[in-house]
Amino acid sequence: MSISIEWLGFAAIALSALAYLPQVTHLIKEHCSAGLSPRAYCMWVVSSVLLLTYSIVKEDPVFISLQGYHAGAGALILFFCLRYKGQLCEEHGGEPLSVRLKRSQGKA
Asked: Which segments of the chain are extended strands (E)?
């Protein structure tokens, strides 16, 4: 395989990583799980790990990188999706984060 072709693959991985940043940033910053399904992300993580295993066996550096990234990103999204399950930001019809945090501190 030509090195220039592999760089195309790595460029695609970088674009894939950039594509998830707005969703992950919103999820973590606003504690908002609007539109996220823990079941779907669980299936995504499992499929990524399976494809990562296959890629390692085939010794394909582009797909090892891609599936490693997808498994990590999926696990991160799944973790925060479960942590903030049912919480919505103001943009998605919920309360502002400051109000939700004050309420949760009052209960503790």
From this structure: none
pLDDT at 51: 92
Residue type, 61: P
pLDDT tens digit string along 14-25?
A: 888 888 888 888
d(CA 14, CA 56): 20
Query: For the chain, percent helix, then strand, then coil, each to nearest 5?
Result: 80, 0, 20
In this structure, what token pair is assigned to residue 106? 């009052």
Q: Please name each of the domains of the chain with its CATH number.
A: 3-107 (1.20.1280.290)
What gap in Å lies between CA 21 and CA 73, rounded to an integer? 10
**Residues 38 and 82 sit within 8 Å (Cβ to Cβ):** yes
Q: What are phi and psi of 59, to 5 degrees?
A: 55, 45
Closest C-alpha to 36, from 82, 103, 97:
82
Which pTM does this prediction carry?
0.75
Residue with token string 């919480």: 87
